[in-house]
Design goal:
Strand 12, helix 7 and strand 13 form a beta-alpha-beta unit. Helix 1 crosses helix 9. The mean pLDDT is 93. The chain is globular, with a radius of gyration of 20 Å. By secondary structure, it is α/β, with parallel strands linked by helices. The strands form three sheets. A seven-stranded mixed β-sheet has the order 10-9-8-11-12-13-14, sandwiched between helices. A five-stranded parallel β-sheet has the order 1-4-5-6-7, sandwiched between helices. It contains nine helices and 14 strands.
């Protein structure tokens, strides 16, 4: 890599930052982050960043608010240290599901987070598989939106599936599932569900032919795994031969791991946008793919002012 580029990270996902740094053949810059007894975060960048092209890699995963605050403080410190350009690299964008008003007197939290990142001093954002594409419009700075599909597709193509059907777990994910099915030249099915309350869903029926075929439930994230495991049960009840699942962001909160372990899902394919070390030990069905080469290549192209979209052609 040419000189004038630096990669910083907080405590959210140091392992991913190290992988990206190895791809770029640069070190992760030295940052000291400590916490006062009252919970306040103290941060110090231990090297010169004046005039450099700086990338701050920090997914805003659990603990969401601490990781978000670290990101904002790093951006502010870089701005005040006269960094040439600051790009917030956010593999997982927290608060992404709160992207609209679903009832009176509620915030649009996703927009607020975008405003905070911009106000802190970021010049650019690099994100992976945003929950809603319109979040890009919440920023008044350039946003490069990456898709984990090349990583997932490469793995799926190497698997021995029989008459594979890509399944969307709800109507909102049909576009994503259709694009996958088109790339793999296979069939598409849709789960018709009705969500009664937050994080609780009820599967109604399966639209599409799955009997005697391998099925892959595709989503952008799996949180409590309620939707995914219910979809898997519905597919089995409709005669699916085998059931797999894949997603970009494995949030896996609450009892998600237990649900997956006791479900009919044979394998859950995810990427490492969120650290998963403890969950890998508990869930033997978990296959974790690295997006470090994708992020590294995107960072390299942003630094060189070359095309990002050509990565997904």
């Amino acid at each position: 890599m040419p000189e004038g580029i630096k990669l910083l990270t907080g405590n959210a996902h140091r392992e991913l930052a190290q992988e990206v740094a190895r791809y770029l053949n640069i070190p992760v810059s030295d940052v000291t982050i400590t916490t006062f007894s009252d919970g306040e975060i103290m941060l110090h960048i231990n090297e010169n960043v004046r005039g450099t092209d700086v990338f701050v890699l920090q997914p805003t995963c659990t603990p969401v608010n601490d990781n978000l605050m670290e990101l904002l403080l790093m951006i502010d410190a870089l701005k005040r240290a006269s960094a040439g350009r600051i790009t917030a690299v956010i593999p997982y964008y927290g608060y992404a599901r709160q992207d609209r008003k679903v009832q009176p007197r509620v915030p649009i939290s996703s927009k607020l987070v975008a405003d905070l990142i911009t106000a802190a001093g970021a010049n650019r954002v690099l994100a992976v598989d945003l929950h809603a594409g319109q979040i890009q419009g919440f920023f008044n700075i350039p946003v490069d939106h990456l898709y984990a599909s090349p990583v997932l597709l490469d793995y799926i193509r190497r698997r021995d599936f029989k008459d594979l059907v890509i399944v969307s777990p709800d109507a909102g994910g049909v576009e994503r599932a259709r694009a996958f099915a088109k790339r793999l030249q296979c069939s598409l099915a849709i789960i018709d569900k009705r969500r009664e309350t937050a994080n609780v869903s009820q599967v109604m029926n399966v639209i599409g032919e799955v009997k005697g075929r391998d099925t892959l439930i595709l989503d952008d994230m799996i949180d409590t795994a309620g939707t995914t495991t219910q979809a898997a049960s519905a597919l089995k009840e409709n005669g699916a031969r085998r059931v797999f699942a894949a997603c970009t962001h494995a949030v896996l909160s609450g009892t998600a791991v237990d649900r997956i372990n006791s479900s009919v899902i044979e394998e859950l394919i995810v990427t490492n946008t969120i650290p998963l070390d403890s969950k890998k030990e508990k869930c033997k069905k978990l296959t974790v793919l690295s997006i470090a080469p994708l992020l590294g290549e995107a960072i390299k192209r942003i630094h060189e002012e070359s095309s990002i979209s050509s990565l997904f052609v």
